């Protein structure tokens, strides 16, 4: 199994969710995060002093899928989350050794 | 440079409007004013005359009444905090700074423009029976003679009159603020709000409270169900129509609610509005008459409470669960409903008025969502729809006015607000634009318009 | 269908109660009322008589006093926002909508039922020396003659009397709301609160303020340490006992604090309550007498401040660190403590009263936790315990009443509230249940009872 | 044991101060006081005399005026909630409990110490022309004769005088609280605040309002631009200097803003302060004179509004974007600016005063940041700088006083506050220390000083 | 080493923490997340329009343990977090290559 | 590629960010978390009853880097985040199989 870990723009979450539903993904876990990257944030002024908003609000979506589904999951996210503008985010794929459903003790792909 | 655009547009807009101002039923009393100013120059007569007045038996009632109106002004003032918190509570976190900023601006701008123009445009002293429609405004403080500071003027001073009315004035723009929240371009809104408060509001105001044509025909609107709330509600409707709904609100024919980000803020707002309404309605008695002021307190509270219950149970029965935000809107609906007849509707009918308003507002909110007019805080329903209903309630549940003139009055006022807003906001749309870019809307107006977050604390640690 | 259950239970409960209402010391003055209504019908005499009254020398004092009571009513009103924010601040985020909703409901319901029944049940005009115990209520607005709007009635109008007292009435239920928060079933609480405010509160109220048996015996409770706060506190105790503690509060004999989710909200609440108390106590002078009202302001503020200091230093010394939530409770404790004797305790003793209350409340909160009575906001300690103490303080630090009658009075009132609540809330427990399911409690009442979150913003972006 | 240290230091500090108190222009009227107390003992004469007074024609105006001052006291009270929320909103979440706690403490302590010492030190009744500088204080309630409760005393009672002034007193310390937030050691601040409010504030207060040397020379400070705000601002400056900036604020010559954690809280605070200012200024008329009170309301509101606009557009033009926190500071700047001349500056100049203050405050905040004086909420700029400006505005835009004495007055008061604070806070620095450890500052004072988080909800689920 | 990453119901955190303590686990990192899965959320009504609360509040617990402890850690979590009702969550196991304790520069299992 | 997952004290974020910038790291994702470990929290008293604040506020920094950079990234974080006091946190390294930049569809090290 793989953990597909995507960092996306917050307002793209809904579209990503729907794109995943379309390819049959039923579960995911979402975290509010702050991102730092090429999208350098704004130079803002607060009470007269300039500062850079380095960290921009992003959403992290984590989905554990069967090995076979990792690529199409990645593709679906990439497609749905793309605006073409800087700061769209990344998708990482990380190996997962086991998965267990707490409710039923099922393990492996059945647990997803 | 948004800011320069703002100042320029304001200037142009104002002067265009001023040039159009020829329907006036009255000339600016320049000469008189000049005399008065001179008269004031030698202060001794004023001091003496005023001291003499304060010795008269009527001075006590005058002093109490004056004080009550000042306290009422303070209570109406706090309604602006109520609006600010209701609106920001029912908005998303990412637009909170923007909403708060608009409210800070509106109250500041409203008080100043009302001094510069509004007050004297709204209370022009139309000649008896002139059925006045429009008057020029001017700097509020044209004179300061003893006549204006004693019961010659009213049961309160000229200054009190100004400050009480000034606190009302900004309300109309605040109502619009709620309906256009989360997508309106800041500079355009500021221009629009300024023109609305400065020029449009005093016009309809003068029709009734300034002794104009509606008052000549026996229209009755005690504290402004139509003149304040209906006016604001219909201006809000026009703007919401021109602006269109927030992105993601109506998708594929489905309504996707965009939840408010803080129910405590929204609740604080409604309680403060309820509190302020004791000044809004209670002060509109325009003196401290014990019978009337206490009656108004009672009808106001009963209608608000009944409105709350009406909405709570309506939402519970028809919408499955008791919805806090509907309960809050219901209290406001009841308050708007009773405003026109707070002194002319008996307590039991005040309960009925509030109850109907509370039920009405639920269905009205659902209706506007059905027809895809997006109003984040329910301003059109609360102020517009319940404003009309409240105006009609005066005829239905009291005998202060006939149904016909109430209908004519409320529709005229609503129509004026609607048309004015359509034109001005429409012009803004085709010139500088009224809506932020989709990117800015997605990212939030706080970053886009202000470069500031409402709750920046986490990112904070990284500076 | 919870909502239908609610309406049904309310109906049954009310009628059962009404049928039991035969202890009354007084008949409903139906005939008189009818007369009066007729008398009002021809309005001219009222207008003339009233105008004549307003010309009398006493009218000025009457007008001021009336205005002061109305402003006090507004101040007491804002206490409900204070309660709403204290309670939600000291509760967990997942129960915030529920807490706010209850407060919105209580104030709405309280005003309406007080008009329908409570006011006339509480001020029945027991015959002199009748030592009345119970009276039927009725629609508050039985008459509107000039006698009720002038100093014939009091230093304020009948309407003012109603609205001032109505704002007090809902307080009792709000106190209970805090103690049962985070686990009580909404519909059951709403039924209980309605019965408590409508029927129980006016009964004990009539014992003293309605001229009943306690007042006949020289009991002294200026603004309601016992009649309002003690009453609410003991009702809260009964409900907390029946309901049991929140899951996870007392585990294996250990106390596991469940922290409040927003200290700013709690602080806002306490300052608003302190503010409102100037109306609660200040208005209870029942006129604008300069000496008395100013004395009451001073004793109230001194006791509140001393209560705050008392709690701060007690918590600092005995609990290691200065606890903000204790400081807040201490201010409230001081306020509750001085309420019974605000006009009858000298300033220096007001400080002492507040100080003792502030110290007392800390130990009381610890005590109730020790005996595993779970009270999320400390309502039983603040209102119940300090309510008793405040009532006794009248005898200890002043000479307005003897210790014996103070003790009898406060215990009678507390006992009645306790027993009434035990029976009614107990009946609700065995019928429709008073507690949400463990799952709902774990998940939060906001989702369970209202399907709404207080701070839904993050999820929001996904709709 | 911080707490013991606090109590000890307080004792030592107080007694040191007391021993130094020999500049007094007046002896404690012990004998008179004793007489008076005796006189009160037999209560009948008081009751009778008071009743007789209430029958006089002047009683109505007295009653109204007294009521207005009491209501003003309540309005000034709510400013403390305003300060608490502005400060905590502009601070980081991790220091919120600490900020709220300080405000709860200050108001509690302020009222009590003002009763114990401050009131009688501030209003010592310097002999005519004595040009008094310092007087001993004492328990406020030295007498309670009829003279103190009727217009013999003033247009309000002695008690009203006390409570109105007591609400002002704590303000000075609250201003300091904002400037030293997020790094000051709690116990040291509490000692400092206590000494400042108890001893220092009444001294400068007595110079003007107590009939001392400044009032003898024609200084004019209507409601305290210098006496309250300037005083607080300069005490804040001294403390901020001694304390040094927050860690991470000025790094490698760059200014790194530390953002406030909640803009809604900050906005709530400013609206509440604006509201309270109607009592602060309006009540300072010291009676209910319709002309003066209404004029004061108008100038106050116009200056606040102009201040808001001034800051909004200044920040927009010079700082690129419209900054909400600057708009909020602008309103406060306008209010501080008009406070000295609210009854002596004509409405059009009130607008000008507010506008200048609103512009000034933006540059002042930038300036203090440039010179690395860290003031999290802008207290030094708002209260100190605009306090001076407001005092001078009296001479610039009105004719109540000359420029020279205004300058001397405001600088004397500021200097006294500055020097007093330098000495006392400096002594605290070298003895028990005034700053928390860098670790505690990094972690937040809520955990360090109170062991409590402001928003603990998430961690909550794990207890 | 393994990263045991569990998504659980928020109110189960305390029990999970205690269960882990019982088997000698001394460190963990907890994040507030929103979960989406079979537990479909509620259909709620807000101001008259129906919507689905897709994302439910969950808590993510991350614990890095020695290879040998991964299974018993998983078991302990599963046991403590189970309510038997839908939405109980999942436990994933992910390989970890290295761990370092910042304070001491210790690495490997000693760092945990 | 590797995912470097560090749990640090919140006020160290700025320094860590700068240390990473110094070694050329351009992207990272940051999450607010609560940590539980040897640093046992305080025993506090709330309204008279004692309790332990088990979970302390921490910040989690996640950075995906080229295999070659994992060590120097870890080192940089360790150095910047160290206070030498208990609770400084940990750095974990986890294998990553793929990375995709949403904006450009680039994959592999180019995506970082
Ligand atoms: N090396 C990285 N490791 C972890 N997260 C990263 C990394 N680089 C970028 N991110 C995340 O992706 C987000 C977008 O990256 P950014 O470089 O700004 O734009 P883009 O994705 O268009 O290249 C960042 O805000 C951050 O949250
Ligand atoms: N494939 C997945 N990847 C990541 N997280 C998941 C996945 N499936 C479920 N989850 C998480 O587990 C939680 C519970 O899953 P759910 O399907 O609702 O119930 P159950 O665990 O009983 O099967 C979800 O809310 C989500 O946070
Ligand atoms: N085994 C672990 N798995 C995941 N996170 C851990 C683990 N041990 C510690 N942590 C995280 O690291 C933080 C610091 O750990 P702690 O043991 O308190 O101090 P130190 O890092 O000095 O040893 C904890 O608060 C927790 O967030």
TrEMBL record, chains A, E, F:
InterPro entries: N-reg_PII, N-reg_PII-like_a/b, N-reg_PII/ATP_PRibTrfase_C, N-reg_PII_CS, N-reg_PII_urydylation_site. PROSITE patterns: PII_GLNB_CTER, PII_GLNB_DOM, PII_GLNB_UMP. Pfam families: P-II (PF00543). It comes from the Bacteria. SMART domains: P-II. Keywords: Nucleotide-binding, Phosphoprotein, Transcription, Transcription regulation. Signal peptide: none annotated. Homotrimer. Belongs to the P(II) protein family. This is P-II family nitrogen regulator.
UniProtKB/TrEMBL annotation, chains B, C, D:
InterPro entries: Ammonium/urea_transptr, Ammonium_transpt, Ammonium_transpt_CS, NH4_transpt_AmtB-like_dom. Residues 67-455 form the Ammonium transporter AmtB-like domain. The chain crosses the membrane at residues 60-84, 96-117, 162-181, 188-210, 222-243, 263-280, 292-319, 326-345, 351-368, 380-397, 403-428. Coiled coil: none annotated. The keyword Transport applies. It holds the Pfam family Ammonium_transp. Keywords: Ammonia transport, Membrane, Signal, Transmembrane, Transmembrane helix, Transport. It is a multi-pass membrane protein. PROSITE patterns: AMMONIUM_TRANSP. It comes from the Bacteria. It is found in: Cell membrane; Membrane. Residues 1-20 form the signal peptide. Belongs to the ammonia transporter channel (TC 1.A.11.2) family. NCBIfam families: amt. This is Ammonium transporter.
